[in-house]
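quick one before i forget lol
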Amino acid sequence: DVRWLYLLLGWLRLDEVSKDSAVPGLDREDAYKRVAAVPPLPEQAAIVRFLDHADRRIRRYIRAKQKLIKLLEEQKQAIIHRAVTRGLDPNVRLKPSGVEWLGEVPEHWEVVPLRRRWSVTDCKHLTVPFVEEGIPLASVREVQSFDLQLTNAKRTTTDWYAALIAGGRAPRRGDVIYCRNVSVGAAGFVGTDERFAMGQDVCLIRSAEQNQRYLNYFLHSPAMDRQLSQLLVGSTFDRINVSEIKSLLIAVPPRREQDAIAKHLDEALASVERAVGDACREGSLLREYRTRLIADVVTGKLNVR
């Protein structure tokens, strides 16, 4: 049965086997020499029928998890957008912002270019050596989530670190590291006192007077997505420079209100993030179960006759 053979080859993962394979000491030639038990044709057909049925159910469950994740992400964006464009008072009086992609905002808020309230410092454009044990570098990968993640960051030496932070470029707790290339608009809030430097394609946004978590929520809002989309129209590459970042329009409430909005969003989104995490883990477990099921069936460990 050709389909049974396909399942067997999938289990052997011949298309993934190479010298860089995760299977130690196994190359493609070795894989082709592996011995596999071949059941009679009727049993091969039974295996295919069973796995077709199981696979349809598992894929349906996985699609349901993917749909749930999408809905949760949409809910998250709606919560952020509401808070950073309308505030927390449902009865607040609104005024036209004068910006098409932003719409109305509370009448006591300001809509100003980012440079009016925040400083923006570009990274050093240096190619530095990487070392196993050294000081972390925050580049594009490290700012993909709301909070900066340095766990898997590349590292450099102390001397190169000193060069990278020259001119007031040493990040500190409360800063925002903003991506200006490839993943334009990604931004990570610095919530650590660990020493690190900016790597390539990012810049540092700082203010002592404004709530930086509020700013980061605005940077992650659908309103900012629309602003960036208009800015990048016609661009060959997704890339903006520091002057364009400084010109980004931000809806700015009074500091006390910024604090309240940031606290509200931290709390409101925590449950959504947990639900997304649970759904992602469940999807991964379903995929692992599918792989294990195929392996057990095609090797005869599970009798499906």
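fyi Helices lie at 2-12, 28-32, 41-86, 158-164, 212-219, 222-231, 242-246, 255-298.
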